[in-house]
Structures
1.
Amino acid sequence: MINIKQIQLNELQTYQSDLFQYSVFNSVNWLSIYQDAILIYGLFNSNNEFIGSFFLYKQTNKGMTILSNPPFTPSCGLYFNNPSQSITSTYSFNKKVNHEIAHFINKQNASIKIFSLPTNYIDTQDFFWLNYKVIPNYTYHINLSSDIEAIFSNFSSERKKSIRKAIKDEIVVKKTDNYQLVLDLVLKTFNRKQKKLNAYFLNKILFDFANDTNSFAFVAFKNNIPIACTFCVYDDQRAYYLLGGYDNANKHHGAGPLCMYNSIDYAKQIKLPVFDFEGSMLPEVEKYFRDFGGVLTPYYTINKANRIIEIILKFIKPNIF
């Protein structure tokens, strides 16, 4: 039997231990960014032992309650310890946990539920059986076990050319903890594209969360002017590309890719196994990520809304509702 109950941040910190390989997004420091808006759920076995957790972000918009991934967070953070030994018992235990989670979330009072599962959770049948929309999404993963020359050789010819051009044009890339530079470049990018950005949480991530143990950033300079950046967070298993930006007034087509190359190289230097681009369904962004030679990796978004709202959303967002 699997029990699910809401827990507080201080309880999560007590429960978590070296027995669990949870991601940076499950860490207390990350989740504390969202304060009272984050709902953390513990998974407990029949002996009332903690075996894992997941979380949802609760917000209200136009009178509707929405449960989703927290801003800048790629999934609901699901992880759990499966004690099974055989393949069949492993699948059976996973199915039992998935069943309880799907039914638990289904009972939550919310107008819209829209969240993603981590890339290593591919069994979505219980959500499907409860009439959720299960939508495939994609990210790219780079295996960092190869040397950096081999990794670079997998870049597209266009991406290699732009990086070499940036080096030739004396674009200088530096690792930095001056996150104000990162913020300025990210804001310029979002403002230029006229896309909404949650500035409050962006500031919390850059100035409250980020430090040398969980994040790194690279900034490209042209004539000592910052023109592009990358920002990643990381844990023991992966570096996650979270943010990027560039100054359109001083742009160089190779500055961003050179920052990304340095980010990948740094993730390798600190002995991380994987570099995760964290995914995008925007065609132009997907093409950019693809050019760095990673392995296409699916993950799933789980969506459901109240009947009337879902009918409306089918016209507004037909690809996910």
2.
Amino acid sequence: MTRLFLIAGEPSGDRLGAALLEGLRTLEGPALEVDGIGGPAMAAEGLVSRFPMEELSVMGLAEVLPRLPGILRRVRETAAAVIEAEPDALITIDSPDFGLRVARRVRAARPELRTIHYVAPQVWAWRPGRARKMAEVIDHVLALLPFEPPYMEAAGMTCEFVGHPVVAMARASEAEKAALRAVLGFGDDPVIALLPGSRRGEVARHGPIFSETFARLRRVRPNLQAVIAATAPVVDLVRETIPDASVLDPRDMPDSEAQMWKRAAFATADVALAVSGTVSLELAAQGTPMVIAYQANPVSAAIARRLVRVDTATLVNLVTGRRAVPEFIFERCQPRMIAPALARILDDPEDAAEQLAAGEEAMRRLGRDDEPPGLRAARSVLAAIERPRLARRG
């Protein structure tokens, strides 16, 4: 019997946890016993969450502060539940602000309990000290990017690259793409996907910039259509800030249907304009060339320039070591600069082909040709439970 306590605090972690549980059940079958906190995806894999995961899915200082006492109470309650359950391992999935606080309390009470964290912190980009701090309470890390293990190992943890979940995403079918064009009335017109972010602050900053960029492109391409696969909390703001685009509203449809329309929108687009983040990998998975843009307030931009240790913000570029995806960050995030880069992709098949090749390379490096990431993660978890723990530093 293998007993595990898993903690996910937001939808992306819930999906990772569900794939991990599916892999664990493939390997362990009925010998697996799970407890913890998760959302609907993990519930579908048999986890009965101790409280609604939505209590932890808060972002931003203004949202967190009023709920901080309740969140800290949940940290104490969850740590006590882990200690009482006596699992073979505690697995925290992303959401380090909550999960690592729980792990620290558990480590203090049960130092022998194996602790595993799924999703390495981006110490290769900024704040390298986070890995050393995490090593105080975590034994093993499951990494999504192939270059991350050395950073975690240098801090005193074992780490294994288990593949990125993007490689398990379904590719949009021709029927799905045709259905999208029919529903939105695009006909055979060229299409741009506009992806201004999933949070209100991101959309507020990028929406007007993306709208003006689209307008510039449309002056010389009047039949160009724009589609936006918006997240539920920002649909209305997206419509307000980018009024000339067709917006896919996921609020009244099941998640599987929303994901279908999202991948269809990505795959149908001849080019995409997106904010920096995991979305660049999602676009690459659908074979869509792109331009990446990101705007921040002057204070945040100044801080980022001092802390960031890499010369590109685009994951496709980082994974491949190439700089195939153009990006316009901070003061360069202007329609007059972004529009020509998008136009080159629309007008130059060689430019688009170079990006598609980089995207395919990124998918291979992220594990597209290997076992599913959830199964690889499951193997890594079971091996970590059996492996002797590294000697603690200090």
3.
Amino acid sequence: MRNKILIILLSLVLTGCGKDGDENKNVGPVEYNFILTENTSWLNTGIKLQRGKVVTISTNEERAIGSPVVDPDDPIPFFGHRGLIGKIGEKGLPFIIGMKYTFLTNTLMEGENLFIGWNDKDFEEREEGFPSEISVTVKIEDTDAPPLISPIDGIWVTTATPVFEWEDLDNAVQYVLEVSLFPDFRIIETSVSVTTSYVNLTVPSVQAPTPSPQPQVQLREGTHYWRVRAQVNVGRSLSPILQWTKWSPPYRLGVELGASPSAPTFLSPVTTTGISEGEKVFFEFKTNMDPSYTFWRWRAVTTACGETPQIDPDDPTSGNPTPWMVLQTVLSSNNPTEPPYYYGYFTSPELTRGEWLIRVELKDMNGSTSYSDMNLSIGCAEESQ
């Protein structure tokens, strides 16, 4: 166990944490490197955040996504145990970093220190196989994009008409809000132009700069991404020069209207025929992204040939269920218009002769569940001949 924290600064120019009067100088991107050690609950990076900066936290180590098994007592119960997380200020809400996370600082973050840490409820008891330390880079850049305020990144709401809010920019003529099902905004779900620093989807808004009715928008249940940019007058009032700012880094928003998670769809095996006794079968599945996050696990029950395997709903151990695990988020490479989906996989034990029932179960943060079954008959056809 290492008892001290090694902090390596790759630059002596400290944006946002220099001497008084230096905070607002445009010095270009600045990078810092840190080593987060195994016995550190939260590492105070010493970076004091300033409004209007793009902060990117990243690591090259895949271990940053944590264990596939979730722990409901961890700071972020729907993220992999011992994954890389962060928070803003001593009392800030933890957020997921994983291998990379980018955000734009707003006024509420100003003056607060950036912390990084492990998604671990008891960091002093490190289990075998988890990283003892991890190298993390923090990059800070200037931007002219409007800082987003609410809904905060990663939250899920129970209304189809949330209010979007961002910070007002000096000399802004109009703002454009875009909402998409894709983090890269390849397809725009909703686009609204306004002169205010908010959009209330429950009431008609006004297009800017030419007034015209904007119909009420209702977001469907699911995961959405939203961003904002502004058109700013950089000239004089009598000689306006209009320029667009950059887009703000997007926020993730879940709209949860109470529906259960979509039942998983098996991707493999493609066929259940031809599986031999003693074979281990690789299973893949996918499901729609759930706005309130989703866990998964699988069970397996076997009986003699000719019988019907069943999972006892009154027995929580029936089928030897695995622990609840996190799902991977995937963008389809075959269909660029397919929204992101959740993906999971596992390998069965050696299949003995008999009738098998394989069940994949899903559970969201509301406790709603769904499942899909696959039946396999191993060697039974030979007995009937």
